[in-house]
Amino acid sequence: MLSSTSGINVIYSSETLPQLKFPFLICGFPGSGYVGKLAVDHLIEELHAKHLVDIYSTSFPPQVMVRTDGTAELMKNSIFYSNVSINTSNDNENTGLLLLTGDSQPTNPDSEYILAGAILDIASKFGTQHVFTLAAYITGVFVNKPKIFGTATDGSLVKSLGELNVSVMDGGSITGMNGIIIGVAKLRGMKGTCLLGETSGYVVDAKASKSILETLLRIVDIKISMTSLEKRAKDTETLIQTIEQQMAGRTAGVTEGKQQTTQGKPPNMGYIS
């Protein structure tokens, strides 16, 4: 099933849409540290989520992606779906998830709004009422335990984030699809939440992905295995330690070089005469 509008091609994997009960839309767009994308990819893998739709855009970079099986195809965003069991005060019940992952974000602002509209059009077919985006909160420094920051489109959601020990943002902006899509969702009467994992922005950060996913799972009340993501988080930790050691070595070398070049010179008195 194919639909096309404003440079967007939407190709469903089946003519028959699955039955989903007011599914959450959870978006993991590629971005700094791949924080959100890694988290959603892990969800897709652990839940054995099924493919729903591919979304192609002329605003994606003009290139093809070579997949692990050797095939090449245009860059795209994809949505997968899953019915999962959640805990309630009465008993277990099923809820739906729409899980968006992708190769790229659009390269211009107009196309970001168009893509956001196309994605929300798909979610609306299933009665989605709450949209989550998972993003990176870039600090430029390495940390042992990444904090989770957050914002939402209404006060009650913001309050619930604070109760989960999420550091609620009180200023600034969220650029790209992670911000645009919850903003557009609000205009459409949907709720929107953005969770941001603290990351240096220098490496693919599975450690931040693990932290952000743990927070999301608490919000939507779902349990999955985190084993493979924990392994990737340990790999991130090892990489960070290696980088820090290299940086420390370079700093020591620079300091030693400065000491050698200042020998025999008069002391710096802190002023210029």
Task: Name the features.
273 residues, alpha/beta, Rossmann fold, ten-stranded mixed sheet, 12 strands, 27% strand, globular, disordered C terminus
Strand order of the largest sheet: 1-2-4-7-8-3-9-12-10-11
CATH top level class name: Alpha Beta
Mean pLDDT: 87
CATH architecture: 3-Layer(aba) Sandwich
How many discrete structural domains?
1
CATH homologous superfamily (4th level) name: PAC-like subunit
Count the E strands: 12
Query: Rg, please?
Result: 22 Å
Q: Which sequence of SSEs, written as H and E, runs from N to C? A: EEEHEEEEEHEEHEHEHH
**First and last CA, distance:** 78 Å
Proportion of residues in β-strands = 25-35%
Helix content: 25-40%
Regions with pLDDT < 50 over 5+ consecutive residues? 261-273
Report the CATH topology name.
Rossmann fold
Structural account:
- The chain is an alpha/beta fold and 273 residues long.
- The chain has one domain: Rossmann fold, CATH 3.40.50.
- Helix content is 36%, strand content 27%.
- It contains six helices and twelve strands.
- Strands 1-2-4-7-8-3-9-12-10-11 form a ten-stranded mixed sheet, sandwiched between helices. Strands 5-6 form a two-stranded antiparallel sheet.
- Strand 7 and strand 8 form a beta hairpin.
- Helix 1 packs across helix 5, helix 2 crosses helix 4 and helix 5 packs antiparallel against helix 6.
Brief description of this entry?
The chain has 273 residues and is an alpha/beta fold. The protein has six helices and twelve strands. β10, α3 and β11 (167-168) form a beta-alpha-beta unit.
